[in-house]
Here is the input.
Amino acid sequence: MSEEQAAQRERSPRRGMCAAVLSLEAITLGLTTPVMISVAGVATGTALAVGLGLTVACIVVAGMLRSQWAYAAGYAIQVAAIALGAVIPMMFFLGGLFGVLWLTADRLGRKIEREKAAAWAAWEAEQQR
Here is the structure.
């Protein structure tokens, strides 16, 4: 097996898709900070802690997706994003949308990884003949 094949075999579609969702969600959650301050009237310190805290959490978890616990943390971020709708009603929709994207990326990524492993196993069996 060449180095290119080995690198391709180790790439995780699940990790890539979930990291993309969290990266886009980080932008959305970062932009909630000024909305909380100016529109919802949330105290500046609280808005910074919540908005930027969730933004940083998205970025950190996106980078840690090699560990299984990070996927559970991703689900917790989705719940927090939806709960932010109590302050900014539009976040019920946006949080829900990102929740659906996260769930889809996680489930579809797992399915692709299973099928990819089966294809590599079949390829290796064929090479043994």
